Amino acid sequence: MNLERYDEKLKKSNIWVMPFTSQFMFDCFLGKNFAKDILPDILNILRDENSQNYSDQLAGQLISGKQIQIKEEQYTPKINKLKDVIEDISLSYVKRWFELAYGSGTAHGGSFKGRVKLSEFWINEQLPNDYNPLHCHSTKSTSGLSGVIYLKE
Prior knowledge:
alpha+beta
């Protein structure tokens, strides 16, 4: 599949490609109902006294908000659905990257045969005057994908 056709397929799934010089980023709209449905579960995790706040280790600064790692025992059916959606979008990203890097006309064929698994899942609660700049993460995988989902305006 060529890159243009793959990008058209992504657009039909509400995923837009935002190119940079040598990289690209996805911009997705999951729908207001999706965000509204999952927000109570996210707020429960933020309020959970067993949730550890890591905001002092953040690239930016959260004065009023929190950064919480979602532990597997905190996964609800809705959190699991969000995880599945993130993994599906990430898989689309990796497939597009392979097409861009190797192309369908090469010996590799531009085809990714693996899977994408979320290794860490975080909530950043940003309140007025909090910020988190664009930054890199160290990850378990060499791909190092990370993303942001905004649940409130």
